[in-house]
Amino acid sequence: MMTPIFEKALLIAAIGMAGIFLFMAIFYLLILALDRLMPFREEKPAEDFFEETGTEDEDN
């Protein structure tokens, strides 16, 4: 035996839970899209860059 108030409370709770899951799904897809648009590239320190260019000039 469910009262109308309890039914309304369950409906509000279900809408809130669905909203949270929908938001989390959209947020996850946004993170994936940003990862594809701007992939992580590990930057070399300046010392490594100058050492590599210096060895190429010495070989010639």
Overview features:
mainly alpha; rod-shaped; 0% strand; 60 residues
Which segments are poorly predicted (pLDDT under 50) over 5 or more consecutive residues?
none
Which geometry do the CA atoms define? rod-shaped
Q: Tally the helices: what do you get?
A: 2
Q: What is the straight-line distance between the termini? A: 90 Å
Q: From the helix content, strand content and strand pairing, which structural class follows?
A: mainly alpha
Strand content: under 5%
Helix and strand string, N-terminal first? HH
Q: Rg to the nearest angstrom?
A: 28 Å
Largest sheet: none
Please describe what this structure looks like.
With 60 residues, the protein is mainly alpha-helical. The protein has a domain at 1-39. It has two helices and no strands. It has helices at residues 4-37, 46-59.
What's a concise summary of this model?
Helices cover 80% and strands 0% of the residues.
